[in-house]
Amino acid sequence: MSAGSRAPLQLAILISGRGSNMAAIARACLDGRINARVNVVISDRPGVAGLTTASSLGIDAQTISWQSARDREVFERELSVAIDAHHPDLIVLAGFMRILSPRFAERYAGRMLNIHPSLLPKYRGLHTHRRALEAMDTEHGASVHFVTAELDGGPVVLQSTVPVRPGDTESALSARVQATEHVIYPRVIELLAEGRLAWKEGRVWLDGKVLDAPLVEDPSVHARN
Length: 225
Prior knowledge:
Rossmann fold; 6 helices; alpha/beta
């Protein structure tokens, strides 16, 4: 089946805040740059800006509140019900700040992506920009990876680097990384929508071959940012 005749990839996007990556992906879908459709945006926090953005783009926006759930098991059960009601091909974590259980990750194995603001395996977890500055790294970046039970440990598909500049602050470096996130996250979803990227037996395949190392975006593309 050619890319042009493929059915659009159905997406569910999970957010916790502004949802800037969600908006970048949704607009790429609406503009026809990705053969995909965002069926629902779900936040674990009520009233966040990303929900307003999703609604303004004509996307079903829902809240499954983390704070109102009795425990993680209840929260994840309610979240799964909301996701499955929309029958997505792919679940996209876009600034979703909840650590998901191994059971949840296994339920959606091969169907869930995350973007992390570091060059994984460096700086898993939080405060990645601060840690890169403290380590006096000369480059930093972002990684799109499949979600597994290991926190920020799933196979990385695509990374992009940005320079760490003299005098950089966390906020300046964060803005530069976020700009490149908005490029590489839609790109990975595009590869899936085209049928070029696939998950088989716990491994990532690209164009019919096992992807042994992440693809790397040309850093010069973002040098002006």
